[in-house]
Amino acid sequence: MNAALAATADLNDPADVRAVVAQVNAELKAEVLAARPAGATRAEVASDQAVPAGALAEYRAGALWLLARSPQAEAEAETVRAAEQRRAHRHPTQASAQEGAERVADTARRRTAEHLLQQRLRTVQQLRQHTQRPATAPAREAVNT
């Protein structure tokens, strides 16, 4: 759920967050029901736990794929590619210099996507904690008056 929120939801828009949560819940429920043998109850099926675990990996992979195409990841990849191309004289051929530049750009794009996902997951966690906090008790002074 968190990976889907981190990748696709506008975390500043509560309606968008609710819509993504509802969509993910519906998708997971459909996957669980599709994996369950006909006529079996939830108590009889071990696959009910396996489906969400598999979905988590899919959501995380999808989130990384989307974030790797974000403007931040593309900018980082381009910066690293340009820096590597300035070092082309260290390669035996222009083709190997270009391959090296693409390789480091891909690595930078992937690492930036991972960093962005971690940032957004922390934001999602903070939002969850904020919305799940119990109401605070009145100040002691107010209680004693």
Could you list some keywords that capture this structure?
single chain, 145 residues, mainly alpha, 6 helices, elongated
Return the domain count: 1
- What's the SSE pattern? HHHHHH
Radius of gyration: 23 Å
Helical content (DSSP H or I, runs of 4+)? over 70%
Mean pLDDT level:
82
- Gap between N and C termini: 46 Å
Separate helix tally: 6
Structural class: mainly alpha
How many β-strand stretches? 0
How would a crystallographer describe the biggest sheet? none
Topology, element by element:
Layout: H1 2-8, H2 14-35, H3 47-68, H4 71-85, H5 94-132, H6 140-144
Helix pairs in contact: 1-3, 1-5, 2-3, 3-5, 4-5
Please characterize this protein's 3D structure.
The protein is an all-alpha fold and 145 residues long. It has six helices and no strands. The chain has one domain. The longest helix has 39 residues. The two termini are 46 Å apart.
Please sum up the structure shown:
The protein is mainly α and 145 residues long. 76% of the residues lie in helices and 0% in strands.
